[in-house]
């Protein structure tokens, strides 16, 4: 059953705001625009392929204050009923002032806007899990998980993605991970009877994404990356000293051309945004 939005919202339209928490490589920005524009195109494709087709209306807000961004006010979000937080080179477990302000805003929305559904990718996934009490920290040995990676689906993951396959593939680009999924024992923001599901895992990252019915759907893996973007993001992290194992980086770049399932994940997130998860526990 479609979510009933207020005002001019229609059953076949989803209105979301993308919180941009970083900027792509300059070459990617020149050809594909900001992360918000990349997500807008991806979700429009998912909307076109939805039955019946769904219209996507995307607002975007660059929120990194040290780089000239700013957080939206609560009034700015009156007509928004879905929020997606992008990836970032910042640490989601960091205490940068803008990150703490963003967490405060998300908490306010979580508590007082029950109509809003949340999604996050990479940094966004980690930040939303942090909001709900998860530990976010570097992976063991601070190893990077890079580029084309098989993700093993749980039973809930198969239902969410409407697939009988037990593996999907996504591009990874992270050194930190969510060490434990959110639960009522980690936060008072979740009712005692709520169940946060982990929908997939990899060899290096047990919590590849979490799902909470009618509320939350996150992904550690990237949805909208193509081959050029993967190569550029890896190069950028090598150049800024984030990735120190250059051999690992070069090997990972060779997988950038492989097909991935970002559109499948975007379609599942869109179904959450549209209120179609009645058949999921």
TrEMBL record:
Annotated organism of origin: Neodothiora populina
Residue intervals of the Glutamine amidotransferase domain: 115-222
InterPro entries: ChyE-like, Class_I_gatase-like, GATASE
Superkingdom in the source lineage: Eukaryota
The name this protein goes by in its record: Glutamine amidotransferase domain-containing protein
């Amino acid at each position: 059953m479609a979510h009933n939005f207020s005002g001019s919202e229609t059953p076949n339209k989803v209105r979301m705001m993308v919180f941009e928490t970083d900027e792509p490589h300059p070459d990617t920005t020149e050809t594909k625009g900001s992360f918000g524009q990349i997500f807008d195109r991806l979700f429009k494709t998912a909307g076109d392929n939805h039955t019946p087709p769904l219209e996507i209306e995307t607002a975007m807000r660059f929120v990194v204050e040290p780089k000239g961004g700013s957080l939206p006010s609560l009034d700015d979000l009156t007509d928004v009923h879905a929020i997606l937080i992008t990836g970032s080179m910042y640490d989601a477990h960091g205490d940068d002032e803008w990150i703490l302000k963003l967490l405060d805003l998300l908490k306010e929305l979580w508590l007082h806007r029950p109509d809003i559904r949340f999604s996050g990718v990479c940094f966004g996934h980690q930040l939303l899990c942090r909001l709900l009490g998860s530990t976010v920290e570097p992976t063991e040995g601070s190893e990077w998980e890079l580029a084309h990676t098989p993700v093993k689906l749980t039973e809930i993951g198969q239902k969410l993605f409407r697939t009988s396959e037990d593996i999907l593939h996504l591009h990874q680009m992270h050194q930190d991970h969510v060490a434990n999924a959110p639960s009522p024992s980690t936060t008072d923001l979740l009712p005692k009877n709520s169940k946060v599901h982990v929908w997939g895992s990899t060899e290096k990252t047990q919590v590849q994404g979490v799902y909470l019915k009618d509320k939350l759907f996150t992904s550690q893996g990237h949805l909208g990356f193509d081959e050029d973007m993967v190569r550029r993001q890896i190069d950028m992290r090598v150049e800024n000293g984030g990735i120190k194992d250059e051999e690992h980086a070069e090997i990972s770049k060779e997988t950038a051309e492989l097909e991935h399932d970002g559109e499948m994940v975007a379609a599942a997130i869109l179904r959450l945004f549209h209120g179609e998860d009645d058949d999921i526990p």
